[in-house]
Amino acid sequence: MSLLEVRDLTVTYANGARAVRGVDLTVEAGQKLGIAGESGCGKSTLALALLRLLPAGTEVTGQILLNGEDVLGMKWGRLRAVRWAGASIVFQGAMHSLNAVHRIGDQIAEPIVLHKTAPAGKVKARVAELLEHVGLPAARAQAYPHELSGGQRQRVMIAMALACAPDLIIADEPTTALDVMIQAQILRLIEQLVAEQDLGLVMISHDLAVLADTCDRLTVMYAGRVVEEGPARQVYEAAQHPYGKALSAAFPRIGDPSSRFAPQGLPGDPPDPSDLPTGCTFHPRCPVALDICSSRDQVLVDAGELWRAACVHVRGAEASSVPDTADAPAPGGASDPDPAAAPANEADSAGASGASVGSER
Ligand SMILES: Nc1ncnc2c1ncn2[C@@H]1O[C@H](COP(=O)(O)OP(=O)(O)OP(=O)(O)O)[C@@H](O)[C@H]1O
């Protein structure tokens, strides 16, 4: 039994926006899964859906199994227990998630008291232990959120997430608001705690480099769908989907100083989830789109060992039914020698494919 199994998850907000569409995910115990995609691709919606934290009126279909238990079918009381003790979320921007008028020790104690994960007389000691675990002095329990730095507040959020000893941590852009040095510290802390306690991790970020460095597996989302998934380092270094390639090229490459100051941007923006393009939703921005891409979406097909991508250019996709593929560029092909040089914003490549490219950001 997997720690987390998500099958055909679709989330539709009350305004009709389908922010998550048919997503499948699996996280094994102790495994670290990264979910990447630009802002608006549905990553946070997916994270919130996992613990049923979406606003009332949102329609969620599909299946979410946490330790084999059906989260979407759970009664309210069971769901409350599962939210801290089964899986917990570290949100982006700790200042907004912490209550400004309560001492942080009291806030960390709250889930412990609620779920009775420590005897009443031992709650304070447990809070002190958790603070020290995340690298803060126990005395900081007396502090209010505004008395802490951004990095310290994020450490408090991590302490809270660990308070009831969950099996799974969901970290939604846990370092976005922090400067680079502190980001690295927080990422190392998360890695260390997850390894020590053999926790599962779902880490969400727009930064593929961070995810490749931290996670075992990587899922790339675009317009609410998974367009690529595979071993983290391999997907980062040689993404098979043009979107994965562009995302990877948009961030400095780990250990490659030459790319540090020359990240490539991806022109345009993800589509509005209430008004999605036909066919492959990436086709209006795709530098290697074929005519067929505007009318036919691609399913995920094998792109390597435990590696799948949903692009007509991936070997094994429905290439036989696609006209004129022989002349098309093959950026997603397994033999592409230089994924860092993905033609995400090469004008001639876009022109050759007839793709319409959106405005530069
Ligand atoms: N409550 C809501 N009602 C309607 N649409 C929403 C709501 N919340 C999010 N959306 C839309 O759903 C889409 C996905 O948003 P989501 O926040 O999940 O993306 P994301 O990839 O996590 O981006 P970010 O990193 O900016 O949070 C966006 O188009 C967003 O505008």
From TrEMBL:
<feature type="region of interest" description="Disordered">
    <location>
        <begin position="318"/>
        <end position="361"/>
    </location>
</feature>
<feature type="compositionally biased region" description="Low complexity">
    <location>
        <begin position="323"/>
        <end position="361"/>
    </location>
</feature>
<comment type="similarity">
    <text>Belongs to the ABC transporter superfamily.</text>
</comment>
<keyword id="KW-0813">Transport</keyword>
<keyword id="KW-0547">Nucleotide-binding</keyword>
<dbReference type="InterPro" id="IPR003593">
    <property type="entry name" value="AAA+_ATPase"/>
</dbReference>
<dbReference type="Pfam" id="PF08352">
    <property type="entry name" value="oligo_HPY"/>
</dbReference>
<keyword id="KW-1003">Cell membrane</keyword>
<dbReference type="InterPro" id="IPR013563">
    <property type="entry name" value="Oligopep_ABC_C"/>
</dbReference>
<protein>
    <submittedName>
        <fullName>Peptide/nickel transport system ATP-binding protein</fullName>
    </submittedName>
</protein>
<dbReference type="GO" id="GO:0005886">
    <property type="term" value="C:plasma membrane"/>
</dbReference>
<dbReference type="GO" id="GO:0015833">
    <property type="term" value="P:peptide transport"/>
</dbReference>
<dbReference type="GO" id="GO:0005524">
    <property type="term" value="F:ATP binding"/>
</dbReference>
<dbReference type="InterPro" id="IPR017871">
    <property type="entry name" value="ABC_transporter-like_CS"/>
</dbReference>
<dbReference type="Pfam" id="PF00005">
    <property type="entry name" value="ABC_tran"/>
</dbReference>
<feature type="region of interest" description="Disordered">
    <location>
        <begin position="258"/>
        <end position="278"/>
    </location>
</feature>
<keyword id="KW-0067">ATP-binding</keyword>
<dbReference type="GO" id="GO:0016887">
    <property type="term" value="F:ATP hydrolysis activity"/>
</dbReference>
<dbReference type="InterPro" id="IPR027417">
    <property type="entry name" value="P-loop_NTPase"/>
</dbReference>
<dbReference type="InterPro" id="IPR003439">
    <property type="entry name" value="ABC_transporter-like_ATP-bd"/>
</dbReference>
<feature type="domain" description="ABC transporter">
    <location>
        <begin position="4"/>
        <end position="248"/>
    </location>
</feature>
<dbReference type="InterPro" id="IPR050388">
    <property type="entry name" value="ABC_Ni/Peptide_Import"/>
</dbReference>
<keyword id="KW-0472">Membrane</keyword>
